[in-house]
Amino acid sequence: MIGAREFTLKLKGKWHGVSGNAPCPVCQPERRPDQGALSLKDGVDGHLLLHCFKSGCDFRAILAASDVSATEIENRVPWTPVHHQAPNRDEVERRSRQAQSLWGETCAIAGTIAEHYLREARGITCALPATLRFHPACWHPSGRRYPAMIARVEGSDGFGIHRTYVRPDGFDKAPINKPKTMLGAVAGGAVRLSDGTDTVLVAEGIETAFSAWILRGGVRLRVWAALSTSGMKAVRLPDDPGSLVIAPDGDRAGRAAALALADRACRDGWAVSILTPPENGDFNDLLRNEVLA
Q1: Strands, E assignment, the chain
Q2: Are 131 and 292 in contact (CB under 8 A)?
Q3: pLDDT for residue 17 is more than 90
Q4: CA 61: distance to chain centroid?
Q5: Closest CA to 160 of 129, 181, 137
Q6: 10 Å Cβ neighbour count for 139?
Q7: Do the strands 48-52 and 14-15 form a parallel or antiparallel pair, or are they unpaired?
Q8: CATH of domain 191-292
Q9: Cβ–Cβ under 8 Å, residues 164 and 176
Q10: CA 236 to chain centre
Q11: Among candidate residues 272, 255, 276, 254, the one with its CA nearest the CA of residue 27
Q12: How big is the CA angle at 61 (ends 60 and 62), to the nearest 5 degrees?
């Protein structure tokens, strides 16, 4: 029986420990070393997860073009997730209180440096939600203070925030190590940027989520930023399944996180689609290129 690793090597791709990339045998039949549109991963219960980020090629077509039969990928040993020790509850509550206190120091984002950052540096044109606020002098782990966009994380077990430190002129992130940091209870949560229908769009970053939404015409959706690849894998979706649109970043980690979320959501009854990001880029890159074109 063939698994994701074996399939990756069969296609002359590269295995990265938990997932692989290889030329898609349907739309990249040349199988050159620089081609790697197909992402491969072992999902829960032994399911083989394949996604072509170039053309969205059909699962069965990929198997057929690879000379792999469906029986070769059945009855494999189920994948066993790794369980990490939960953080100390007292520590979680302490950091949640810190996050709530910081949130209380913020003001509305309209007319601030944080809004300027989103509009001018990132090309975000849509309305901004109340889950985004501004802090004029937010403490950074480096010991200094900077202006920051503060985002409220919802859906976690406590109070959590995300901080994006920006330059005083708002034209880019602050030139510091780790200009984006989280505080408080964020596991399983997301920054909810828009209310909408039963369709949920999930991306990693706030700017990326906004950009993917704008590029899809700004239609009425629930738009969430999971804030990281681990956040995307663990984000808690609504109890009633609907349609899920995943807007991953174009690096290997982003694609692997999208596949992990897609696998879980499919098993929970969601209709899932994965948007195709630019290679080693994200949807904000696409949006800004479109604005400049």
Answers
A1: 14-15, 19-22, 38-42, 48-52, 107-108, 132-139, 145-153, 160-165, 180-184, 191-194, 199-203, 222-225, 243-247, 271-274
A2: no
A3: no
A4: 27
A5: 181
A6: 15
A7: unpaired
A8: 3.40.1360.10
A9: no
A10: 13
A11: 276
A12: 90
Q: Are 70 and 63 in contact (CB under 8 A)?
A: yes
4 residue type, one letter: A
Q: What is the C-alpha separation between 249 and 262, in angstroms, rounded?
A: 14
Cβ-Cβ contacts under 8 Å for 81 (sequence gap 6 or more):
44
Going by C-beta distance under 8 Å and a sequence separation of 6 or more, which residues neighbour residue 217?
none
Query: Cβ(191)–Cβ(164) under 8 Å?
Result: no
Enumerate the β-bridge partners of residue 152: 161
Taking the alpha carbons at both ends of the chain, their separation in whole angstroms is: 49
| Residue bearing tokens 């959501």 | 265
- Residue 136's Cβ-count burial label (10 Å; 0-12, 13-18, 19+) is middle
Residue 271 β-bridge partners:
243
Strand order in the sheet with 191-194: 191-194, 222-225, 199-203, 243-247, 271-274
- Total count of residues recorded for the chain: 293
- Residue 236: pLDDT band with limits 50, 70, 90: very high
Ordered by start, the domain boundaries in the chain are 4-73, 89-184, 191-292
**Mean pLDDT score, 210-222:** 92
Q: Which two tokens stand for residue 232?
A: 């995307």
Q: Using an 8 Å Cβ cutoff, are 213 and 257 in contact? A: no
Residue 1: both structure tokens together: 């029986």
pLDDT tens digits, residue range 136-174?
999 998 999 999 999 999 999 899 999 999 999 999 999
Amino acid at 282: D
User: What is the residue whose two structure tokens read 């782990």?
Assistant: 141
Q: What share of the chain is helix, strand, coil (3-state, %, to 5)?
A: 30, 25, 45
